[in-house]
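queue> pop job 88
queue> type: inverse folding (structure -> sequence)
queue> payload:
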């Protein structure tokens, strides 16, 4: 059904963004500061909350867990759409949580990130809403 395909497309976009972000976190320099002195300083300075880490380690950890959250969303929602669509599309809770995640992600991407993540999350949001809407229309047609 089309609503399942749209949900998988939405989830796949988020999963892809998460994978790319994880790769960039541990490979290459794309997430490094342009100023080498700033990176050196981040490796020496601790955040106020604790001296047990540095700002650099916190930065890397944040980026990694951020990636993992995106990948979890993509894997869970695509899995449910493919293997258990009745559970996903029959659960207002799951649908609202997914919608909140994508809307929140779009707002954060607009405020704090750059164009590609913002457009990616917006496209995932469009597919998600189209998926949910199509599932509702098709459920009404069946009923």
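queue> result:
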């Amino acid at each position: 059904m089309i609503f399942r395909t749209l949900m998988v497309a939405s989830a796949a976009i988020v999963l892809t963004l998460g994978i790319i972000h994880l790769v960039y976190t541990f490979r290459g320099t794309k997430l490094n500061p342009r100023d080498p002195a700033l990176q050196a300083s981040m490796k020496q300075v601790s955040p106020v909350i604790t001296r047990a880490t540095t700002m650099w380690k916190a930065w890397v950890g944040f980026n990694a867990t951020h990636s993992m959250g995106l990948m979890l969303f993509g894997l869970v929602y695509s899995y449910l759409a493919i293997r258990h669509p009745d559970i996903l599309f029959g659960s207002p809770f799951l649908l609202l949580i997914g919608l909140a995640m994508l809307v929140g992600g779009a707002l954060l991407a607009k405020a704090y990130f750059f164009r590609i993540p913002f457009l990616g999350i917006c496209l995932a949001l469009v597919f998600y809403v189209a998926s949910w809407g199509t599932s509702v229309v098709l459920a009404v047609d069946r009923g």
